[in-house]
Fold each of these.
Amino acid sequence: MDPKRIAALEGRIAGYDVNNCGQFRELIEAYALGALDAEEGTAFEAHLATGCKDCAQAVEEARWLVNQLAYLAPSAAPSDMLKARLMQTVRAEARAAQGSAQPKAGIPLWMWAGVAALLVLTMYSAWDARRLQKEIQTVNESAAAEFRQREQLQQELAVAKRQAHILTDANSKKFAMWPHDTQMPKLEAMWHPELGICVMGQKVPMPSSNRTLQLWLIPKAPGSKPMPSLTFWPDAEGKLVLMVENPPDVMADTKALAITEEPAGGSPQPTSAPMWVGGLS
Ligand SMILES: [Zn+2]
């Protein structure tokens, strides 16, 4: 006959006497948590099958406690490994304490310690995950900001390079833009057939807050309307550097450049007399 079966008939499973109630008291909470190994579980169930009312009631109480724990714990459940490791520790401590002070009815102290540790660990890991997530977010944000800054610098560098090229290239046509008002400064313009137009000036007065300066290309063809170009402002010191990349019209078809003051956002056609005009003779 199977030795296990013989042991069961003798009332012994995994070293437990199925009729000795006291032996099982320390296993009840672990049983309710589903943390007993198979043999211990079988032994305890065999003891319950003898009709022990004390143990049946204790199991019910422990199950209630486990349910409360599940209700209290954050949504991130502790991993099975964590639970198993915790229960192993708790049971080892319970075994060590066995014989000295038999736990009284109700929830033994080590179980409370276990529950507290489980809660703390679960909350810690949830908190840790949140903190990690936050850190990752911060790193991503600063990387994105750095990327944007670098992109902007590259853009500015490209404009500066193009501008330098327009100013130095022999193919650029240089001409003055004369002010209508003699109190205003003269502007300098350079037009490169491929790279675009560059207009520069010093001591250019700032238009009022809801106004802007706007550049116009005046076509050679008689009767044709001025072509609207960019709107712009001088900087705080009155320095003006205007770059028009890829102007919509070819230099040969353009008679002159003009600058007017327009409502903010610019106009489809000039609404005031030109403040500066420069002819491409
Ligand atoms: Zn019992």
Amino acid sequence: MKHEINTDPVLQIDSLVKSFGNNRVLNGFNLKLYEGENLVVMGKSGSGKSVMIKCLVGLMHADSGTITIRGKDITMMRPQELDILRTEIGFLFQGSALYDSMTVRENLEFPLRRHKERLRIRESNINLVKEALENVGLSEAIDLMPAELSGGMKRRVALARALILKPKIILYDEPTTGLDPITAKEIIELMRTIQKKYSTSSLIITHDVDCARVISNKIILLINGVNYIEGTYKQLVQSTDPLVKAFFK
Ligand SMILES: Nc1ncnc2c1ncn2[C@@H]1O[C@H](COP(=O)(O)OP(=O)(O)OP(=O)(O)O)[C@@H](O)[C@H]1O
Ligand SMILES: [Mg+2]
């Protein structure tokens, strides 16, 4: 691929190892995300996808391996540096993870309050909140509580919150899981719109084959802690390997 020759990855994982007791979840996992790319990681439940993404954002510490974001090794970073880097990365948690006691507006203001001074954001919070909600088509929900939202609406709000600092890299952990097929499609469309609007690079974790088909430039299958196979959707659906076929049937 031409961009692999011309540019460095915006995000790179090398030989990531992570165990919990005797359970070795990641056993030398590798990944390279290039600018503007939609990279999908698929793997069955319990294969370590969320563990991988948590290591990426520093919520978990890997046993070994390196994680480089924009050329900086995050495994060597102090908490303060890591905090700054986090503002460049949007993270959509598995299952939305909104603060239940806060309104939609307060949920969106949370990352702003935390990082605004350092980021020297000039715009008022309320304008940024409104823009983020407009992006996900939920302007009218600004004063609602999470309990008043449907599952699909919650996912949209979580997406708006992940985007509010206009990150260049977005990590999605199961963006469509638990949603009906139509709502899932809407979320996928939103992800595409947002990528075009802000030219972000995305790492998408999913076991939704439709999502992978529509959105991926490249797919990595995570099996037994390693990259079992990598390729485009087209390449992977044509695979005759039973383990790969099981995903795309
Ligand atoms: N904090 C933890 N302590 C102990 N074991 C953990 C912890 N977090 C994850 N694990 C284990 O690591 C493995 C991978 O979990 P992970 O959540 O990454 O799976 P996943 O691929 O995201 O699955 P799903 O598709 O269901 O979200 C599981 O066996 C899980 O039990
Ligand atoms: Mg998970």
Amino acid sequence: MGFTGLFRQSGLSHKNKRKNIQYILLIGPETFFFRNCFIQMARIFITGSSDGLDSMAAKLLINQGHRVVLHARNAERGRQALEKVPGAKKVLIGDLSNIEETKQLAAEVNATGHFDAVIHNAGVYQVPNKLIFAVNTLAPYILTCLIQRPERLIYLSSGLHLQGDPGLKDFSHDTSRYGYSDSKLHIVILSMAVARKWPGVYSNAVNPGWVPTKMGGKGAPDNLEKGVETQAWLAVSNDKEAKVSGRYFYHMREEYFRPEAGDPVVQEKFLALCEQISGVGFPA
Ligand SMILES: NC(=O)c1ccc[n+]([C@@H]2O[C@H](COP(=O)([O-])OP(=O)(O)OC[C@H]3O[C@@H](n4cnc5c(N)ncnc54)[C@H](OP(=O)(O)O)[C@@H]3O)[C@@H](O)[C@H]2O)c1
């Protein structure tokens, strides 16, 4: 990490870089002391960062001086992801619709070292239900279980989770029964289960709003920048409002979510379903 990101994060003028360097105290390889505050550089892994919201979140975090590892479904999308996000040093490859590739991706994430935060962003919308369940529900579950525990976990949900079925369609293994709204409720259930089971980890869900990405479409009415900042803020901020767990955010504010997602009975049912389908148990 150069000083450029640090200047941006601390609000320093880059023009006065030389003059300002003398006031920065290097505490450790990842921590600086400047203007009476500690600035800590975080390492963040973001799924589905070849496009859309989290390609933008990756840029935002890199501009703040953090280190971001990207993820894409295949090598070609990986190459494009690196082109889109200057400053990202690495991209990991794995098709999240494939259970074995998702497990392999988790192993590769771990091989690169510990992450401070993981943003589970990858998602699909207007595709067959089985694919929706694989990418939106099962992949974040598998990655959560298999990636070495970070300090912060952020899960991209949607306002449509309110229309999801908390009864898990009678606990069916037929994943074609679960649609997009169900999958976005699943991710809230997962984030709340993690918050309950891993008290040392900040685990939260985010509704980015209906925003104009490939998924949201050109006519989406919500603010794209605001759809990006919450997940980046939750990943790195030392604000007390960001260092919380088991919450659901919209535009950096806590919002109402389906209360069933906070119910341990629903959570256990959900985790058991994912374990049976993926063969991966949730770590105690
Ligand atoms: N946009 C909205 O209005 C909106 C609203 C509410 C919630 N959300 C949620 O926000 C998140 C990001 O959405 P977005 O709007 O940024 O969508 P997007 O532009 O379609 O980006 C989705 C990302 O997920 C990746 N992805 C999809 N399937 C994958 C697979 N099988 N393996 C690996 N990567 C895969 C995509 O890769 P490719 O580019 O290669 O397909 C892309 O990088 C999603 O979880 C979505 O449900 C979005």
Amino acid sequence: MPENRVVQGRMVTPGKLAEMIEGEPVMDTEAIEDADRDCPDCGGDVIAVGYMPSVTEFVTGYKCQECDWKDDDRE
Ligand SMILES: [Zn+2]
């Protein structure tokens, strides 16, 4: 049972959150977690989700719950 979160006023699933961060649908996702950081743009709460954009890649993505800010752990 995926744990949904509210992002920018919308309830999102882990898959939808990963899609918002990646810009396109991803193959697989883990559960959404609280990231231990604040948004650098607005100071809002940041949430994290691990996902696989392809079979060979695993990425942790970050998204502010209040604004458009997003990031991932790619070098
Ligand atoms: Zn923000």
